[in-house]
Amino acid sequence: MASDIQTTRLTYADQGALHLIADLAFNEQYTSAALNRKFYGIARPGIYRGFNYAIGEGLTMTVGDDSGEDTAYVERDRHCMTIHGQHAVTLNIPAGVKSAIVIEGFYQYGVETKQVNSNSQTDAATMKVIPSSAIESHHVVVCEVSVPTGAKAITANMISEDKRIAGGIDLASHIDVTKDPHKQYAFRKIKINTVGPLRGGHDLSEDLTLTVDPSTVGTAGVVQLEDGSTSNSIVKAPTAYALTRERMRAEGAEAELTQNLADTEVRVKAYADGKANEAEGHARVYADQVGATTLASAKTYADNVSRQAQANAEAVAIQQGTEAKQHADSVAADAKKTAIAHADQVGVDTLASAKAFATSEAKAAEGRAKTLRPQKHRRQKPAQTLQHVNISMMLSRCR
To answer: What is the pTM of this model?
Structure first.
């Protein structure tokens, strides 16, 4: 068979000018480009498996793991790329903005990437966090995260998978039975019966129209969803995303209000402290001025009061001295009278006692004298004479 191969000098075609192009052609010039367009438009971009996320500490999230089962499909610039996750990726999520975690692939002929050259500055595949408003058609969205301003941690109700798409083989063209190459999937004649708010129903051999009655407060039926939460309708309901958005908006407003209150409190305190310091300075200056004047006035007033008090005290002392002298004289006179009266009474009592004692002693002496004999050689003075003398002295003292 090798002998059948003809060796010729190639003149490469301008593939961009061809009306049709096939994958792959023999002796393909740009093999990587041909492979990367092999399934372009056939497989649906999205996440085929894995790339699951988990909430980390603080404002971080982790996507993927080390299992090797994280696979996504990306279309970009008429090329398609299969992207595999080999290890978990930890990402920081900003607060105060709605963000998206996206997978991005890159291929351009002639541009080396980090996948083949460690010195390159271009990633062949990357996962990053961008504002939701910056999502482009070539991005595969893992999830969206809305973290309110001031939040310190991520919670499950902040995460949305509304824009996460599951990749797969495109079967959209298989709806038309006449053009479907897989006849085994064609619709068979099956009869559909409907109940409740669903109306219509017959076999599927021809076009079938089904209708659903709208629901009301008292009637079962379909509820029309709307991307809002301020309607007063009784037959419409807000989507989960709308409710989440309103809740996040309220939480953000609450956090912002809390922060504003804290900032206001700080500013008010700083202003009050400044004014208090200013007032204290003015008060010190005024107090010094008033203090000097007040001290002089107080000294003058104290001197006047002292002189007046001294004069009053002297007048009171003189008055009280006169009254005290009169009172003392009166008391002394009363005491003198009492003493004289008492002395007179005591003198009378003493005189009587003395007289009685003298009489008794005289009688006793007289009796003893009668019993005594006179001595020859000595003249004895009568005892009663001495006793009379003693009695006379006592009586004189009593007087």
So the answer is: 0.42
